[in-house]
Amino acid sequence: MTSIELPDFYMPWPARLNPHLEGARAQSLVWVRRMEMLEPVWDEERFTAMDFALFAAWTHPDVPSEELNLLSNWYIWGWYVDDYFPQTYTGAEDVGAAREYLGRLLAFMPTGGKPSALTPENPLECALVDLWARTAPGKSRQWLRRYVAIIQDMAEEALRELSNLSRNEGRVLDPIEYLEVRRSVGGILWSAQLVEHAYGLELPQRLLNSRQLRLLNGAFADAEGLQNDLISYDIDMAEGQVNNAVTVVGHFLDCGAQDAADLVNDLVTDRLEQFEHTCASELGRV
Q1: What tens digit of pLDDT does each residue of 153-162 get?
Q2: Terminal CA-to-CA distance of the chain, rounded, Å?
Q3: Residue 13 — φ and ψ, nearest 5°?
Q4: With helix as H, strand as E and coil as C, how does the chain read?
Q5: Are the CB atoms for 77 and 131 separated by under 8 Å?
């Protein structure tokens, strides 16, 4: 296996840590125990090492403690889904069962003001009932429907990935195809939607439909996803994964892993500079 040396990342803004981190860590452990989410997907040692509260504290440095707890719990739920599906549904033959399971999850996020008629039957559903009760109050139906639609898009992507697992196993995508897929996986745009809740915002539909916001979302998704590929490259290679931007670029250009990593980092920088330019020069035109 060829390892890479991480390049110097472009950092346009200094990283800041939320001061309520330790409280969020303690609350998150209590919460996953109460939701019974530590088995069979994770054990407590692995859960502690993943440190979802730290992720939330870096990405939302200014939110109050109650909101940081909620965001940490949402990230726990999202990653639990991401780990649960590959362990439970192993290929195209399981798509029907997986679709039924995901359909039930969506039913626990009602947007019309009435509680779900279903009774939660497993940790993911119990956790979602708790999360929705803490997320929905004070938000408009339009925002709630938009949030549920993003969760549904994530679910559909999980199903597509599951159905394509056997057919495309080992196939290296071309860079354009890979970028299109990368934007839709990993909950990147879902994370962007959580920013609105974190700061009590509801962006108007006119802004959501604008070219400028589409540029911001695309630049954010590309930069976050590609930088994650650089950081996780060695782990992906150890697990035999080919869905990594370094592998994709190296295969397409027939170059070594380090050269490919440097090119991926150049693209990350370009996307962050696009984000900065759009914020500084184009948002005022919306």
Answers
A1: 877 776 666 6
A2: 48
A3: -135, 145
A4: CCCCCCCCCCCCCCCCCCCCHHHHHHHHHHHHHHCCCCCCCCCHHHHHHHCHHHHHHHHCCCCCHHHHHHHHHHHHHHHHHHHHHHHHCCCHHHHHHHHHHHHHHHHCCCCCCCCCCCCCCCHHHHHHHHHHHHHCCCCCHHHHHHHHHHHHHHHHHHHHHHHHCCCCCCCCCCHHHHHHHHHHCCCHHHHHHHHHHHCCCCCCHHHHCCHHHHHHHHHHHHHHHHHHHHHCHHHHHHCCCCCCHHHHHHHHHCCCHHHHHHHHHHHHHHHHHHHHHHHHHCHHHC
A5: yes
133 C-beta neighbours (distance < 10 Å), count:
10
Q: Provide the pLDDT for residue 168.
A: 52
Q: For a pLDDT cut of 90, what percent of the chain falls above it?
A: 53
Task: Give pLDDT tens digits for 69-95.
Answer: 999 999 999 989 878 776 776 655 666
CA distance 59 to 39: 27
Token pair in block for residue 27:
């609350």
Q: Give phi and psi for 11, each to the nearest 5.
A: -125, 90
Residue bearing tokens 């920088």: 269
The C-alpha atoms of residue 238 and residue 245 are separated, in whole angstroms, by 15
Three-state secondary structure call for residue 244? coil
Is pTM, for the whole model, over 0.85?
yes
**Which two three-digit tokens encode residue 75?**
């990230």
Kindly state the tokens that stand for 91. 């290929």
